[in-house]
Amino acid sequence: MFMQSLTLSEKATPMTQNNERYQIRAVDRALRVLTLLADGEPRTLMELSDALELSNSTTFRLLSTLASYNFVQRDEASGRYHLGLATLELARSFQLSNPLQQIALPLLRQLRDDTAETVHLAVLDQMEVVYLEKLHGLHAVGLMSSQVGARLLAYCTGLGKVMLAFSDPQAVREYASQVAYVRFTPTTLTSVETLLGELHAIRAQGYAFDRGERESEVHCIAAPILGPNGRLEGALSVSGPASRMHPVEEQGEHIQKLLATARGISNLLGHRAGQPPAYADISFNHSQAR
Amino acid sequence: MFMQSLTLSEKATPMTQNNERYQIRAVDRALRVLTLLADGEPRTLMELSDALELSNSTTFRLLSTLASYNFVQRDEASGRYHLGLATLELARSFQLSNPLQQIALPLLRQLRDDTAETVHLAVLDQMEVVYLEKLHGLHAVGLMSSQVGARLLAYCTGLGKVMLAFSDPQAVREYASQVAYVRFTPTTLTSVETLLGELHAIRAQGYAFDRGERESEVHCIAAPILGPNGRLEGALSVSGPASRMHPVEEQGEHIQKLLATARGISNLLGHRAGQPPAYADISFNHSQAR
DNA sequence: CAAGTAATTTTCACTCAGTGAAAACTTTAT
DNA sequence: ATAAAGTTTTCACTGAGTGAAAATTACTTG
Q1: Which domains does chain A have, with CATH numbers?
Q2: How far is the CA of A84 from the C1' of C19 (A)?
Q3: For A90, which of B91, B123, B142 is closest by C-beta distance?
Q4: 20 to 30 A Cα–Cα from A245, which one of A57, A83, B109, B186?
Q5: Which nucleotides of D are covered by protein (CB under 7 A)?
Q6: How confident is the model over A7-64, as pLDDT tens digits?
Q7: Residue range B91-101, pLDDT digits in tens
């Protein structure tokens, strides 16, 4: 029996014991249905059966069960299944109950109002950036394609880089050496060396720049959020169009406000001023993953 | 064996054959875990076992499986489980792939820009309103508590009332006669008679008012979105503070823009101008549910 | 609009996946 | 330290979940 999960868990989680055991097959299959449908492509019963390599009666029952809770619904016209309303409702619950968001939101609002630019909150998951919150700046909206719930590569975003810089150096080296670098714009970092160098610099100054590395027109500054014991909890950023944010290194006022907000959130999470980050700078750890 | 689903399906769905059969027990249990956690309260393994009346080994395996796909995660500090990142990612997929949202979004943006007020998109599910989209007006934000993914009572919101007015009269009567009316504000409708009367009036004029019936300070106008065969697909609204929207009946310009947008979306969904709604006005159907 | 085709829904019998009880192990309280 | 409470793992049993195939329904197409 094999297992895939598209969104995550390419390999067993490192710290905690390996899962894979203690899994319920039927539930696993149901969740595979959901992750499959999460690509946005509506599918018929048979298409799902084929893709999951399950008999159509099994797929039918999985879908019936999921549908009874509104996790999927069937479009009457096309006969295709797609994700249902319950996914929206769950996401709202997640956001309301997530401690990081509860704590960060008021400060993020303040930061947005103070800078008038778009503010993001994100976490690092499986070495990828996932946006938790996006507060639009007061200028024309819609130019920035970021979305809450979206998953982005870490090496080409300010948020990603700053979180990598405060993560386990061992794991980051591993990641940096095997990720597929894509040059989205002229400023995208596309090699292990430049990325690790950049992470070192970010760690030294305590925040990151994004000079249009993912979208040429979007520049940003990003800072880490730390919790108890200096553990990385997430990151936040202030982003704007190149026209207003360039050169991004000279947005002194924005940088100060960003850092103050990041420190404020970190404190509320239980990080004590002066306590060092949980991990050493990446340049100080040269041991190889064995 | 019993079954509950908190969010929905209090009784078997009326049109389609009854489910309950063709359900996979293990999947059903997993989804009950998620709906339980959707109240935002993080829970320990044992709390969940007790609440679901399952052995802790079963609950443990359910949680392990859910966690391996990031549907739940365990807070290391408290040892409690709460919803995980995957819920956010699924919700994003839902929004991106939902035909109604794809089609409506550009027109909603236009409406927001034209009115400068907050615009909502919602659907009716199990006689309740679920918000799909919220576009903030250009004025100070944060005054309106509505949230994407939130579920609201239908009788006390403009969106809910307008959708009821275009739904199956049989089902609406049934609903109106048994719902628990709560007086949130002085203008809340709190009896079957006033509600049905209001629905009749709404049907006649084609759109609804909300005179602060849920939150005194929030007034709104709402219009239905119809699809092929005049079936109700959802509704949209323009909302603002009483200070700007009062008296709401005299927001002629906003009403015209709202109706034009609703018709535009309906057309794109396949509703042909002139085609009547799928259901008759509530006052013309006096037959009882047998 | 009938005959044919494809997809969905239901039945059914088999058997192994999912189950709870209880044991082993961890963590937290005292 | 020891005890108490919670979590993870083992284990043997059996009925829940399974796929094959039949029945039904929804689409094509001549």
Answers
A1: 25-88 (1.10.10.10), 98-284 (3.30.450.40)
A2: 30
A3: B91
A4: B109
A5: 6-11, 16-21, 26-27
A6: 322 222 222 233 467 889 999 999 999 999 999 999 999 999 999 999 999 999 999 9
A7: 999 999 999 99
